[in-house]
Amino acid sequence: MSARELEHVHFIAIGGTGMGSLAGLLKARGIRVTGSDRALYPPMSTALEDWGIPVVEGFRPENVLADRPDLVVIGNAVRPDNPEARAAIDAGLEYRSFSDALYELAMAQRHSVVIAGTHGKTTTTSLLAYLLHATGRDPSLLVGGISLDFGGSFREGEGEHFVVEGDEYDTAFFDKTPKFLHYHPQTLQLTSVEFDHADIYRDLDHVKSAFRELMRAMPADGQVVAAGCYANVVDVLGDAACEVRRYGVVDGKSNDGEHSGAAPLDWRASRLDATPEGTRFAVQGSEGQAASALLPLYGRANVENALGALAVLDRLDVPLAEAVEALPRYQGVKRRQELRGEVRGVAVIDDFAHHPTAVRETIAALRSQYRGRRLIAVFEPRTNTSRRAVFQRDYARAFDEADRTIVKRVPDEPIYSATGEVSELFSADTLADSLRERGLDCRVYDEVDEIVDALAKDAREGDVVLTMSNGAFGGIWEKLLAALQ
Q1: Same domain, yes or no, for 383 and 286?
Q2: What is the pTM of this model?
Q3: What is the CATH classification number for the domain harbouring 88?
Q4: Above 80 in pLDDT, residue 50?
Q5: Is residue 149 included in any domain, yes or no?
Q6: What is the DSSP annotation of 182-247?
Q7: CA angle at 376 for the pair 383 and 350, rounded to the nearest 5°
Q8: Rounded mean pLDDT of the chain?
Q9: Could you please report the per-residue DSSP string of 27-57?
Protein backbone atom coordinates (compact mmCIF):
# COMPACT_ATOMS: atom_id res chain seq x y z
CA MET A 1 0.00 0.00 0.00
CA SER A 2 1.28 3.45 -0.89
CA ALA A 3 0.68 6.56 1.18
CA ARG A 4 -0.26 8.32 -2.06
CA GLU A 5 -3.44 6.20 -2.16
CA LEU A 6 -4.62 7.37 1.24
CA GLU A 7 -6.89 10.26 2.12
CA HIS A 8 -8.06 9.18 5.60
CA VAL A 9 -6.28 6.92 8.12
CA HIS A 10 -7.76 5.97 11.50
CA PHE A 11 -5.63 4.78 14.43
CA ILE A 12 -7.09 2.49 17.11
CA ALA A 13 -5.12 3.04 20.37
CA ILE A 14 -3.44 6.14 18.96
CA GLY A 15 -1.91 7.21 22.28
CA GLY A 16 1.05 4.85 22.17
CA THR A 17 4.28 6.63 21.33
CA GLY A 18 4.82 4.71 18.11
CA MET A 19 1.20 4.95 16.99
CA GLY A 20 0.97 8.65 17.76
CA SER A 21 4.25 9.33 15.99
CA LEU A 22 3.16 7.58 12.79
CA ALA A 23 -0.14 9.45 12.98
CA GLY A 24 1.78 12.71 13.20
CA LEU A 25 4.01 11.77 10.26
CA LEU A 26 0.99 11.00 8.04
CA LYS A 27 -0.77 14.19 9.14
CA ALA A 28 2.34 16.16 8.17
CA ARG A 29 2.01 14.66 4.68
CA GLY A 30 -1.46 16.13 4.37
CA ILE A 31 -3.40 12.95 5.05
CA ARG A 32 -6.51 13.23 7.22
CA VAL A 33 -5.84 11.37 10.47
CA THR A 34 -8.27 10.42 13.25
CA GLY A 35 -7.85 8.24 16.31
CA SER A 36 -9.35 6.67 19.38
CA ASP A 37 -8.01 5.50 22.72
CA ARG A 38 -8.65 5.35 26.41
CA ALA A 39 -7.61 8.34 28.50
CA LEU A 40 -4.31 9.74 27.20
CA TYR A 41 -1.46 11.34 29.10
CA PRO A 42 1.50 13.57 28.15
CA PRO A 43 3.64 13.79 26.20
CA MET A 44 1.63 12.06 23.44
CA SER A 45 -1.71 13.61 24.39
CA THR A 46 -0.16 17.06 24.09
CA ALA A 47 1.60 16.18 20.83
CA LEU A 48 -1.59 14.88 19.18
CA GLU A 49 -3.41 18.06 20.16
CA ASP A 50 -0.58 20.20 18.80
CA TRP A 51 -0.65 18.28 15.51
CA GLY A 52 -4.40 18.85 15.17
CA ILE A 53 -5.33 15.16 15.26
CA PRO A 54 -8.81 14.57 16.75
CA VAL A 55 -8.97 11.71 19.25
CA VAL A 56 -12.18 10.08 20.50
CA GLU A 57 -12.04 8.68 24.02
CA GLY A 58 -13.28 5.09 24.11
CA PHE A 59 -13.53 2.33 21.51
CA ARG A 60 -16.81 2.12 19.59
CA PRO A 61 -17.80 0.60 16.21
CA GLU A 62 -19.12 3.93 14.93
CA ASN A 63 -15.61 5.39 15.16
CA VAL A 64 -14.73 3.42 12.00
CA LEU A 65 -18.14 2.77 10.47
CA ALA A 66 -19.73 6.24 10.47
CA ASP A 67 -16.91 7.77 8.44
CA ARG A 68 -15.04 4.90 6.83
CA PRO A 69 -11.28 5.46 6.51
CA ASP A 70 -9.08 4.16 3.70
CA LEU A 71 -6.89 2.41 6.25
CA VAL A 72 -7.23 1.40 9.89
CA VAL A 73 -4.01 1.04 11.91
CA ILE A 74 -4.42 -1.22 14.94
CA GLY A 75 -2.01 -0.84 17.85
CA ASN A 76 -0.55 -3.73 19.83
CA ALA A 77 -2.40 -2.56 22.96
CA VAL A 78 -5.67 -3.54 21.26
CA ARG A 79 -7.18 -6.86 22.37
CA PRO A 80 -9.10 -9.29 20.12
CA ASP A 81 -12.45 -8.30 21.66
CA ASN A 82 -11.97 -4.58 21.01
CA PRO A 83 -15.33 -3.47 19.52
CA GLU A 84 -13.78 -0.92 17.19
CA ALA A 85 -11.14 -3.26 15.79
CA ARG A 86 -13.70 -6.03 15.38
CA ALA A 87 -16.05 -3.69 13.54
CA ALA A 88 -13.28 -2.59 11.16
CA ILE A 89 -12.20 -6.16 10.38
CA ASP A 90 -15.75 -7.53 10.07
CA ALA A 91 -16.71 -4.66 7.74
CA GLY A 92 -13.84 -5.54 5.42
CA LEU A 93 -11.94 -2.31 5.95
CA GLU A 94 -8.27 -2.28 4.99
CA TYR A 95 -6.21 -2.64 8.17
CA ARG A 96 -2.59 -3.02 9.23
CA SER A 97 -0.62 -3.42 12.41
CA PHE A 98 1.36 -0.36 13.43
CA SER A 99 4.63 -2.04 12.44
CA ASP A 100 3.51 -3.03 8.95
CA ALA A 101 1.90 0.35 8.35
CA LEU A 102 5.11 2.12 9.36
CA TYR A 103 7.25 0.01 7.06
CA GLU A 104 4.91 0.11 4.05
CA LEU A 105 4.07 3.81 4.27
CA ALA A 106 7.38 5.30 5.39
CA MET A 107 10.37 2.94 5.43
CA ALA A 108 10.23 0.60 2.45
CA GLN A 109 12.28 2.83 0.12
CA ARG A 110 14.86 3.85 2.75
CA HIS A 111 17.91 2.28 4.37
CA SER A 112 16.42 0.86 7.57
CA VAL A 113 18.51 1.62 10.67
CA VAL A 114 16.97 -0.13 13.68
CA ILE A 115 17.90 0.29 17.35
CA ALA A 116 16.89 -2.78 19.39
CA GLY A 117 17.54 -4.04 22.90
CA THR A 118 16.01 -4.18 26.35
CA HIS A 119 17.38 -0.77 27.41
CA GLY A 120 18.41 2.52 25.86
CA LYS A 121 16.47 2.29 22.60
CA THR A 122 14.72 5.66 22.74
CA THR A 123 17.75 7.75 23.69
CA THR A 124 20.02 5.92 21.25
CA THR A 125 17.53 6.19 18.38
CA SER A 126 17.11 9.93 18.86
CA LEU A 127 20.88 10.41 19.25
CA LEU A 128 21.68 8.49 16.08
CA ALA A 129 19.11 10.44 14.07
CA TYR A 130 20.38 13.71 15.54
CA LEU A 131 23.97 12.91 14.56
CA LEU A 132 22.95 11.95 11.01
CA HIS A 133 21.07 15.23 10.73
CA ALA A 134 23.83 17.31 12.30
CA THR A 135 26.36 15.88 9.83
CA GLY A 136 24.16 16.72 6.84
CA ARG A 137 22.57 13.33 6.07
CA ASP A 138 18.94 14.50 6.59
CA PRO A 139 17.47 11.23 7.96
CA SER A 140 13.90 10.24 8.68
CA LEU A 141 13.05 9.19 12.25
CA LEU A 142 10.39 7.54 14.35
CA VAL A 143 11.13 7.13 18.04
CA GLY A 144 9.17 6.15 21.14
CA GLY A 145 9.60 9.49 22.88
CA ILE A 146 9.72 13.21 22.27
CA SER A 147 13.09 14.20 20.82
CA LEU A 148 14.16 17.61 22.10
CA ASP A 149 16.38 18.07 19.05
CA PHE A 150 13.51 17.66 16.59
CA GLY A 151 10.65 18.90 18.77
CA GLY A 152 8.70 15.68 18.37
CA SER A 153 8.85 11.93 17.91
CA PHE A 154 9.18 11.81 14.13
CA ARG A 155 10.70 13.60 11.19
CA GLU A 156 10.69 12.95 7.45
CA GLY A 157 13.92 13.88 5.73
CA GLU A 158 15.22 13.67 2.18
CA GLY A 159 18.17 11.45 3.08
CA GLU A 160 18.46 7.71 2.47
CA HIS A 161 18.24 6.59 6.12
CA PHE A 162 15.18 5.86 8.23
CA VAL A 163 16.10 5.48 11.92
CA VAL A 164 13.56 3.65 14.05
CA GLU A 165 13.27 2.22 17.56
CA GLY A 166 12.79 -1.55 17.27
CA ASP A 167 10.76 -3.10 20.06
CA GLU A 168 10.70 -6.83 20.86
CA TYR A 169 7.06 -6.63 21.99
CA ASP A 170 4.53 -8.47 19.84
CA THR A 171 2.98 -6.71 16.87
CA ALA A 172 -0.80 -7.07 17.22
CA PHE A 173 -3.45 -9.49 18.45
CA PHE A 174 -3.53 -10.91 14.90
CA ASP A 175 0.28 -11.03 14.57
CA LYS A 176 2.31 -12.24 17.54
CA THR A 177 5.75 -11.79 15.96
CA PRO A 178 8.10 -9.14 17.45
CA LYS A 179 7.67 -5.66 16.04
CA PHE A 180 11.33 -5.24 15.10
CA LEU A 181 11.09 -8.03 12.51
CA HIS A 182 8.71 -5.89 10.46
CA TYR A 183 11.24 -3.09 9.97
CA HIS A 184 13.63 -5.28 7.91
CA PRO A 185 16.81 -3.68 9.29
CA GLN A 186 19.81 -3.27 7.03
CA THR A 187 21.83 -1.79 9.89
CA LEU A 188 21.02 -2.89 13.45
CA GLN A 189 22.31 -1.65 16.80
CA LEU A 190 21.70 -4.06 19.67
CA THR A 191 22.11 -2.41 23.08
CA SER A 192 21.22 -5.20 25.52
CA VAL A 193 19.26 -8.42 26.05
CA GLU A 194 17.54 -9.05 29.38
CA PHE A 195 14.30 -10.56 30.55
CA ASP A 196 11.37 -8.18 30.25
CA HIS A 197 7.75 -8.10 29.06
CA ALA A 198 6.72 -10.98 31.29
CA ASP A 199 3.19 -10.62 29.95
CA ILE A 200 4.29 -12.12 26.60
CA TYR A 201 7.66 -13.78 27.28
CA ARG A 202 7.95 -16.78 29.60
CA ASP A 203 11.61 -16.37 30.55
CA LEU A 204 14.99 -15.08 29.36
CA ASP A 205 15.41 -17.90 26.83
CA HIS A 206 12.08 -16.93 25.29
CA VAL A 207 13.31 -13.33 24.98
CA LYS A 208 16.56 -14.52 23.43
CA SER A 209 14.63 -16.53 20.85
CA ALA A 210 13.09 -13.29 19.55
CA PHE A 211 16.49 -11.63 19.21
CA ARG A 212 17.93 -14.74 17.54
CA GLU A 213 15.13 -14.55 15.00
CA LEU A 214 16.08 -10.93 14.37
CA MET A 215 19.71 -11.96 13.82
CA ARG A 216 18.70 -14.64 11.32
CA ALA A 217 16.53 -12.13 9.44
CA MET A 218 19.42 -9.75 8.76
CA PRO A 219 20.43 -9.52 5.08
CA ALA A 220 23.84 -10.92 4.13
CA ASP A 221 25.09 -7.43 3.23
CA GLY A 222 23.71 -5.90 6.43
CA GLN A 223 25.54 -5.23 9.65
CA VAL A 224 24.88 -5.69 13.36
CA VAL A 225 26.58 -3.32 15.81
CA ALA A 226 26.21 -4.90 19.23
CA ALA A 227 27.10 -4.25 22.87
CA GLY A 228 29.67 -7.00 22.99
CA CYS A 229 30.49 -6.86 26.70
CA TYR A 230 27.30 -8.65 27.66
CA ALA A 231 26.94 -12.41 27.75
CA ASN A 232 23.27 -12.32 26.80
CA VAL A 233 24.01 -10.19 23.73
CA VAL A 234 26.92 -12.37 22.65
CA ASP A 235 24.70 -15.42 23.09
CA VAL A 236 22.31 -14.30 20.34
CA LEU A 237 24.94 -12.94 17.94
CA GLY A 238 25.89 -16.41 16.77
CA ASP A 239 22.70 -16.47 14.73
CA ALA A 240 23.55 -13.29 12.80
CA ALA A 241 23.43 -13.74 9.03
CA CYS A 242 25.78 -10.82 8.42
CA GLU A 243 28.88 -9.03 9.71
CA VAL A 244 28.90 -8.13 13.42
CA ARG A 245 30.82 -5.31 15.09
CA ARG A 246 31.06 -5.23 18.88
CA TYR A 247 31.39 -2.21 21.15
CA GLY A 248 31.68 -1.63 24.87
CA VAL A 249 32.91 0.49 27.77
CA VAL A 250 36.10 -1.12 28.96
CA ASP A 251 36.16 0.34 32.46
CA GLY A 252 32.56 -0.29 33.52
CA LYS A 253 30.39 -3.14 34.69
CA SER A 254 27.97 -4.98 32.45
CA ASN A 255 24.21 -4.83 32.90
CA ASP A 256 23.74 -8.57 33.15
CA GLY A 257 26.60 -8.86 35.62
CA GLU A 258 28.94 -10.76 33.31
CA HIS A 259 31.53 -9.69 30.78
CA SER A 260 31.50 -12.27 28.03
CA GLY A 261 35.08 -12.10 26.86
CA ALA A 262 33.88 -14.10 23.83
CA ALA A 263 35.42 -11.80 21.23
CA PRO A 264 37.49 -8.60 21.17
CA LEU A 265 35.66 -5.30 20.96
CA ASP A 266 35.81 -3.37 17.70
CA TRP A 267 34.84 -0.07 19.36
CA ARG A 268 35.86 0.92 22.88
CA ALA A 269 35.06 3.76 25.25
CA SER A 270 37.38 4.46 28.17
CA ARG A 271 38.49 7.13 30.65
CA LEU A 272 34.95 8.27 31.50
CA ASP A 273 34.90 11.59 33.34
CA ALA A 274 31.71 13.32 34.55
CA THR A 275 32.08 17.08 34.11
CA PRO A 276 29.62 19.98 34.42
CA GLU A 277 29.12 19.84 30.63
CA GLY A 278 28.50 16.09 30.48
CA THR A 279 30.60 12.94 30.28
CA ARG A 280 33.97 13.03 28.54
CA PHE A 281 35.37 9.76 27.23
CA ALA A 282 37.93 8.38 24.80
CA VAL A 283 36.78 6.53 21.68
CA GLN A 284 38.83 3.94 19.84
CA GLY A 285 37.82 1.91 16.78
CA SER A 286 39.38 -1.30 15.49
CA GLU A 287 40.57 0.37 12.27
CA GLY A 288 42.49 3.14 13.96
CA GLN A 289 39.61 5.56 14.57
CA ALA A 290 40.23 7.59 17.72
CA ALA A 291 38.77 10.70 19.29
CA SER A 292 38.02 12.46 22.55
CA ALA A 293 34.25 12.86 22.93
CA LEU A 294 31.87 14.89 25.08
CA LEU A 295 28.37 13.52 25.59
CA PRO A 296 25.97 15.98 27.29
CA LEU A 297 24.48 13.10 29.30
CA TYR A 298 25.63 11.17 32.33
CA GLY A 299 26.13 7.54 33.25
CA ARG A 300 28.07 4.62 31.82
CA ALA A 301 24.97 3.27 30.07
CA ASN A 302 24.51 6.50 28.11
CA VAL A 303 28.17 6.53 27.10
CA GLU A 304 27.92 2.94 25.96
CA ASN A 305 24.85 3.62 23.83
CA ALA A 306 26.49 6.71 22.33
CA LEU A 307 29.57 4.64 21.49
CA GLY A 308 27.34 2.17 19.66
CA ALA A 309 25.77 5.03 17.72
CA LEU A 310 29.23 6.26 16.70
CA ALA A 311 30.07 2.76 15.47
CA VAL A 312 26.82 2.67 13.46
CA LEU A 313 27.66 6.04 11.91
CA ASP A 314 31.04 4.67 10.87
CA ARG A 315 29.19 1.88 9.09
CA LEU A 316 27.06 4.55 7.39
CA ASP A 317 30.19 6.38 6.18
CA VAL A 318 30.02 9.26 8.67
CA PRO A 319 33.59 10.00 9.82
CA LEU A 320 34.14 9.79 13.56
CA ALA A 321 35.51 13.34 13.67
CA GLU A 322 32.27 14.73 12.21
CA ALA A 323 30.07 12.81 14.63
CA VAL A 324 32.14 13.67 17.70
CA GLU A 325 32.14 17.35 16.76
CA ALA A 326 28.31 17.36 16.74
CA LEU A 327 27.87 15.20 19.86
CA PRO A 328 27.99 17.94 22.55
CA ARG A 329 24.98 19.71 21.04
CA TYR A 330 22.63 16.73 21.46
CA GLN A 331 19.66 17.77 23.62
CA GLY A 332 18.12 14.42 24.55
CA VAL A 333 14.59 13.05 24.98
CA LYS A 334 11.76 14.12 27.23
CA ARG A 335 11.37 11.91 30.32
CA ARG A 336 14.92 10.58 30.08
CA GLN A 337 16.76 12.13 33.03
CA GLU A 338 14.83 15.30 32.26
CA LEU A 339 15.17 18.20 34.67
CA ARG A 340 11.59 19.40 35.16
CA GLY A 341 12.50 22.27 37.40
CA GLU A 342 14.42 23.42 40.46
CA VAL A 343 12.65 25.16 43.33
CA ARG A 344 14.23 26.22 46.64
CA GLY A 345 17.39 24.44 45.52
CA VAL A 346 15.53 21.12 45.02
CA ALA A 347 15.99 19.62 41.54
CA VAL A 348 13.12 17.45 40.24
CA ILE A 349 14.10 14.90 37.58
CA ASP A 350 11.65 12.86 35.50
CA ASP A 351 12.65 9.50 34.00
CA PHE A 352 10.99 6.58 32.23
CA ALA A 353 12.98 3.89 34.10
CA HIS A 354 11.00 0.86 35.28
CA HIS A 355 13.14 -2.26 34.69
CA PRO A 356 15.55 -2.79 37.64
CA THR A 357 18.59 -2.41 35.41
CA ALA A 358 17.29 0.89 34.04
CA VAL A 359 16.48 2.05 37.59
CA ARG A 360 20.00 1.22 38.77
CA GLU A 361 21.71 2.86 35.79
CA THR A 362 19.55 5.99 36.02
CA ILE A 363 20.34 6.43 39.70
CA ALA A 364 24.04 5.87 38.98
CA ALA A 365 23.94 8.48 36.21
CA LEU A 366 22.39 11.12 38.45
CA ARG A 367 24.81 10.25 41.23
CA SER A 368 27.68 11.13 38.88
CA GLN A 369 25.94 14.31 37.69
CA TYR A 370 24.89 15.66 41.09
CA ARG A 371 27.87 14.76 43.22
CA GLY A 372 27.55 15.47 46.92
CA ARG A 373 23.79 16.11 46.80
CA ARG A 374 21.16 13.99 48.54
CA LEU A 375 19.44 11.78 45.94
CA ILE A 376 15.84 10.67 46.58
CA ALA A 377 14.53 8.00 44.19
CA VAL A 378 10.74 7.81 43.80
CA PHE A 379 9.45 4.75 41.95
CA GLU A 380 6.09 3.64 40.56
CA PRO A 381 5.96 -0.05 39.55
CA ARG A 382 3.39 0.24 36.78
CA THR A 383 4.20 -2.14 33.91
CA ASN A 384 2.76 -5.63 33.52
CA THR A 385 6.22 -6.92 34.44
CA SER A 386 7.15 -4.64 37.34
CA ARG A 387 3.84 -5.36 39.08
CA ARG A 388 4.80 -9.05 39.24
CA ALA A 389 7.24 -10.53 41.74
CA VAL A 390 9.65 -11.55 38.96
CA PHE A 391 12.09 -8.70 39.73
CA GLN A 392 11.45 -8.43 43.48
CA ARG A 393 15.05 -9.34 44.39
CA ASP A 394 16.57 -7.31 41.56
CA TYR A 395 14.79 -4.14 42.70
CA ALA A 396 16.23 -4.69 46.18
CA ARG A 397 19.69 -3.95 44.70
CA ALA A 398 18.66 -1.37 42.10
CA PHE A 399 18.25 1.46 44.63
CA ASP A 400 21.56 1.02 46.46
CA GLU A 401 23.03 4.36 45.35
CA ALA A 402 19.98 6.41 46.40
CA ASP A 403 20.08 8.17 49.75
CA ARG A 404 16.36 7.55 50.15
CA THR A 405 13.89 5.43 48.21
CA ILE A 406 10.16 6.06 48.04
CA VAL A 407 7.88 3.46 46.42
CA LYS A 408 4.23 3.70 45.52
CA ARG A 409 2.26 0.59 46.39
CA VAL A 410 1.01 -1.47 43.46
CA PRO A 411 -2.74 -1.02 42.82
CA ASP A 412 -4.92 -4.09 43.15
CA GLU A 413 -5.84 -4.36 39.48
CA PRO A 414 -5.76 -7.24 36.96
CA ILE A 415 -2.44 -7.76 35.19
CA TYR A 416 -2.61 -8.66 31.51
CA SER A 417 -0.68 -11.84 30.73
CA ALA A 418 -0.42 -14.15 27.77
CA THR A 419 2.03 -16.40 29.65
CA GLY A 420 -0.29 -17.75 32.33
CA GLU A 421 -2.08 -16.59 35.45
CA VAL A 422 -0.23 -14.02 37.55
CA SER A 423 -0.16 -15.34 41.10
CA GLU A 424 2.90 -13.71 42.70
CA LEU A 425 2.82 -9.91 42.84
CA PHE A 426 5.49 -7.32 43.49
CA SER A 427 5.38 -5.98 47.04
CA ALA A 428 6.54 -2.45 47.81
CA ASP A 429 6.59 -3.33 51.50
CA THR A 430 8.84 -6.35 50.91
CA LEU A 431 11.18 -4.12 48.93
CA ALA A 432 11.23 -1.60 51.77
CA ASP A 433 12.02 -4.35 54.29
CA SER A 434 14.87 -5.62 52.08
CA LEU A 435 16.41 -2.16 51.83
CA ARG A 436 15.99 -1.38 55.52
CA GLU A 437 17.66 -4.67 56.49
CA ARG A 438 20.77 -3.34 54.75
CA GLY A 439 20.54 0.02 56.46
CA LEU A 440 18.96 1.88 53.53
CA ASP A 441 16.16 4.41 53.89
CA CYS A 442 12.93 3.35 52.16
CA ARG A 443 9.35 4.57 52.58
CA VAL A 444 6.11 3.31 51.03
CA TYR A 445 2.92 5.23 50.23
CA ASP A 446 -0.41 4.43 48.66
CA GLU A 447 -1.12 7.71 46.88
CA VAL A 448 0.86 10.21 44.84
CA ASP A 449 -0.41 13.12 46.95
CA GLU A 450 0.99 11.45 50.08
CA ILE A 451 4.38 11.17 48.42
CA VAL A 452 4.28 14.83 47.36
CA ASP A 453 3.32 15.98 50.86
CA ALA A 454 6.11 13.96 52.44
CA LEU A 455 8.71 15.22 49.98
CA ALA A 456 7.63 18.86 50.26
CA LYS A 457 7.85 18.74 54.06
CA ASP A 458 11.22 17.01 54.21
CA ALA A 459 13.03 18.45 51.18
CA ARG A 460 16.05 20.60 51.79
CA GLU A 461 18.22 22.75 49.59
CA GLY A 462 20.52 20.65 47.42
CA ASP A 463 18.20 17.64 47.19
CA VAL A 464 17.71 15.84 43.89
CA VAL A 465 14.35 14.08 43.53
CA LEU A 466 14.21 11.46 40.78
CA THR A 467 10.75 10.22 39.78
CA MET A 468 10.63 6.99 37.75
CA SER A 469 7.61 5.52 35.96
CA ASN A 470 6.63 4.46 32.46
CA GLY A 471 3.36 6.37 32.93
CA ALA A 472 2.23 9.81 34.03
CA PHE A 473 2.76 8.90 37.74
CA GLY A 474 -0.24 11.03 38.66
CA GLY A 475 1.52 14.22 37.57
CA ILE A 476 3.90 13.84 40.49
CA TRP A 477 6.66 16.17 39.31
CA GLU A 478 4.20 18.99 38.55
CA LYS A 479 2.58 18.57 41.94
CA LEU A 480 5.93 18.46 43.71
CA LEU A 481 7.24 21.61 42.03
CA ALA A 482 4.01 23.40 42.97
CA ALA A 483 4.21 22.16 46.56
CA LEU A 484 7.80 23.37 46.87
CA GLN A 485 6.88 26.91 45.81
Answers
A1: no
A2: 0.94
A3: 3.40.50.720
A4: yes
A5: yes
A6: GG--SEEEE-------TTT--SHHHHHHHHHHHHHHS-TT-EEEEETTBHHHHHHHTT-SSEEEEE
A7: 50
A8: 94
A9: HHTT-EEEEEESS--TTHHHHHHHHT--EEE
